[in-house]
Amino acid sequence: MPYAEPGMAIGLFGGSFNPPHAGHALVAEIALRRLRLDQLWWMVTPGNPLKSTRELLPLEERIRLSEALAPDPRIKVTAFEATLNSRYTADTLRTIKLRNPHIRFVWIMGADNLRDFHLWQRWQRIAATFPIAVIDRPGATLAFLSSKMAKTFDYARLDESDAEVLARKRPPAWTFIHGPRSPLSSTAIRNGMEAPSKGDGFSK
Ligand SMILES: Nc1ncnc2c1ncn2[C@@H]1O[C@H](COP(=O)(O)OP(=O)(O)OP(=O)(O)O)[C@@H](O)[C@H]1O
Ligand SMILES: O=C(O)c1ccc[n+]([C@@H]2O[C@H](COP(=O)([O-])O)[C@@H](O)[C@H]2O)c1
C-alpha cells in the first residue's frame, strides 16, 4: 500500500485497466482537481469478481501500461489487492481504513459502475465506509437518476459544486461529477476499434 501523510485526502481509483486508456487518465485528472486530492491510488485489480478473467492481460503488464499513462507524481499505481488476496472492494476498503485511520479516502468510479453498483458484494457497506465520487461516462449518464445506488442513497448525495468537501464528509456521502467525457473503453481497444493513445479521448 502506498505511503500517505496523516490528514491527506486520497482518491481510490480501482479498475481492471485491461488495458488502461486516456479515459482513465481523464477520470484521475478530474478527481484530483474537483475533489482537491493530495494523491490518487490507481489500484490495478487482480480481477473484477464480476468479469471473466479469460481476456485479462497479466497484472504486471496492466501496471506497466498504467504507469506509462499516469506521469502525475500524485498518482500512485499500485496492485496491493493482489498481495492482500482481496478481490472484493468491501474487503479492500476495510483493510485500507484499518491501516490508515488518519487519512480521508474517497472511492472513485465511472458512471457505468454506478449503474451496476448494487451487484457488488456488500455494496451498502462500501458506501458506508468511504465517500464515493462518480465520474460521468458516455452511455451511463442516466445512472445518476435511475440506479439502485442513486435511489438508495439519494439522501446522502452532495451537489457537485461541493465536490471539494466530499473527502471530509462522513459516509454515506457521494456526488456525481459532470465535465469533459471520454468515450474510450478497454473493450473497444481489445476489439481493435480504438488505439489506446488515439487523440486526447475527450468529448463534451
Ligand atoms: N471513458 C471513461 N469515462 C469515465 N470512466 C471510465 C471510463 N473508462 C473507464 N472508466 C472507469 O474507470 C474504472 C476502471 O475501468 P475499466 O478498467 O473497467 O475500464 P473499461 O474501459 O470500463 O473496461 P471494459 O471495457 O473492459 O469494461 C471504472 O470505474 C470505470 O467506470
Ligand atoms: O467488490 C465487488 O463486488 C466488485 C464488483 C465489481 C467491480 N469491483 C471493483 O470495481 C473497480 C472497477 O472495476 P472495473 O472492472 O470496472 O474496472 C475494481 O477495483 C473492481 O475490483 C468490485
From TrEMBL:
**Which chemical reaction does it catalyze?**
nicotinate beta-D-ribonucleotide + ATP + H(+) = deamido-NAD(+) + diphosphate
Stretches for region Disordered:
185-204
The UniProt entry, under CDD domains, shows: NMNAT
Alphabetically ordered keywords of this record: ATP-binding, NAD, Nucleotide-binding, Nucleotidyltransferase, Pyridine nucleotide biosynthesis, Transferase
Q: Kindly indicate whether the keyword Ribosomal protein belongs to this entry.
A: no
Q: SUPFAM superfamilies annotated for this entry?
A: Nucleotidylyl transferase
Enzyme Commission number:
2.7.7.18
Q: Does the keyword ATP-binding apply?
A: yes
- Name the pathway it acts in: Cofactor biosynthesis; NAD(+) biosynthesis; deamido-NAD(+) from nicotinate D-ribonucleotide: step 1/1
For this chain, the family text in UniProt reads:
Belongs to the NadD family.
**NCBIfam families under this entry?**
nicotinate (nicotinamide) nucleotide adenylyltransferase (TIGR00482), PRK00071.2-2 (NF000843), PRK00071.2-4 (NF000845)
Q: This chain belongs to which protein, by name?
A: Probable nicotinate-nucleotide adenylyltransferase
To which species is this protein native?
Mesorhizobium liriopis
